[in-house]
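Worked example 3 (structure in, sequence out).
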């Protein structure tokens, strides 16, 4: 696994730009005179660009090798973070009621979204260098790492923003880690695709970026269609939750950035307990399918109680179960889909999984933040209702399979 460390670090840093500023951007948007929906736009813009760029560059990696594209994508992340830092120098400039700072931040997030296609390329790299027996474990680790990043980066973002330099602190952390990752990719990552394995097929760029083509690919996996449908509904709830929770902390619980650091740290400790104890114990006795469904029910139950009582201590009590459910749903689904396909189909199912989540991140943040601005905590009741429908769908599907 040591040889895969640069790729694992890349996957972890991939989520930095998306998650590091989750607790920071609501304050930034508020400071520069915009409301919650603009925060949703900042969240969505990143994923819209990634959604369309990912398959294109994933296919190009079959023709011009993995390593050069991974290096270029990480360089793009580094440049976008620098671009964000430069934006703060224009804090007193306003054009058409929108601060130039927010315009530059939007541009920098779109820039990094375009270069965030390294997720699909990284998955192809992992598929190249791992054996059949290792793939399920490796891709499971990637899935777990995503949720670890979704906890670690917001905690770091809220802590760093509450220090001396304000918004510049999380940017400085991002620039430093991106630079280290770039150096590791340049000097420590060998090429995984031999010359004889390079693709000579012509690439239809428009077809690769097609949304309908991705749904058509699901027909290749009839046994996984119902699981992908469930995962899509779960993805809506997951993205809506991560898009609005920072607004909930700021506007409903009235927490400061420094208080957010303590709160995210508590959730971080919960996650460590679950990933090092709960996952290992339950994976020994439960199948991937059962793991996914049981923890989806846990998320459903936790959201109900979270919705009924908006209080910080109540949230901490519920978060132990809520965050465990989300983390284990993400991890078990990655294990589930990679264990049911052949070696050559590993990259395809993981790409479809990424596409579903990217599509959710491209659309749901704007809808969720708009609903939050209108109905406040009732939006969490809507998330609960979506999971109820998901579970009913699953029950109906099981009846048809008997």
């Amino acid at each position: 696994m040591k040889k895969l460390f640069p790729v694992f670090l890349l996957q972890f840093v991939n989520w930095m730009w998306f998650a590091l500023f989750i607790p920071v951007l609501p304050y930034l948007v508020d400071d520069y005179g915009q409301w919650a929906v603009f925060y949703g736009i900042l969240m969505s813009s990143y994923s819209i660009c990634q959604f369309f760029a990912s398959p294109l560059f994933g296919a190009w990696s079959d023709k011009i090798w993995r390593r050069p594209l991974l290096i270029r994508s990480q360089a793009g992340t580094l440049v976008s973070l620098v671009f964000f830092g430069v934006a703060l120098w224009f804090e007193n400039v306003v054009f058409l009621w929108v601060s130039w700072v927010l315009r530059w931040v939007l541009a920098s997030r779109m820039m990094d979204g375009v270069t965030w296609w390294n997720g699909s390329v990284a998955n192809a790299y992992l598929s190249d260098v791992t054996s059949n027996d290792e793939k399920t474990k490796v891709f499971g680790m990637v899935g777990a790492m995503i949720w670890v990043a979704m906890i670690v980066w917001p905690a770091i973002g809220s802590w760093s923003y509450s220090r001396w330099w304000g918004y510049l602190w999380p940017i400085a952390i991002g620039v430093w880690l991106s630079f280290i990752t770039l150096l590791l990719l340049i000097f420590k990552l060998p090429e995984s695709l031999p010359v004889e394995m390079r693709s000579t097929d012509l690439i239809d760029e428009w077809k690769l970026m097609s949304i309908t083509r991705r749904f058509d690919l699901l027909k290749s996996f009839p046994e996984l269609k119902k699981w992908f449908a469930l995962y899509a509904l779960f993805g809506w709830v997951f993205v809506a939750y991560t898009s609005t929770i920072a607004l909930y902390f700021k506007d409903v619980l009235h927490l400061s950035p420094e208080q957010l650091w303590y709160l995210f740290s508590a959730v971080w400790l919960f996650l460590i307990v679950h990933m090092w104890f709960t996952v290992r114990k339950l994976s020994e006795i439960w199948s991937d399918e059962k793991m996914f469904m049981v923890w989806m029910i846990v998320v459903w139950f936790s959201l109900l109680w979270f919705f009924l009582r908006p209080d910080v201590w109540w949230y901490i009590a519920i978060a132990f179960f809520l965050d465990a459910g989300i983390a284990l749903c993400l991890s078990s689904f990655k294990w589930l889909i990679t264990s049911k396909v052949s070696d050559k189909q590993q990259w395809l199912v993981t790409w479809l999984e990424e596409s579903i989540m990217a599509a959710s991140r491209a659309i749901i943040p704007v809808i969720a933040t708009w609903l939050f601005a209108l109905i406040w905590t009732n939006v969490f009741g809507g998330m609960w209702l979506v999971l109820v429908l998901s579970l009913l769908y699953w029950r109906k599907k099981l009846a048809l399979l008997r």
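Notes: The chain has one domain: 2-191+210-401. Residues 132-161 form the longest helix (30 residues).
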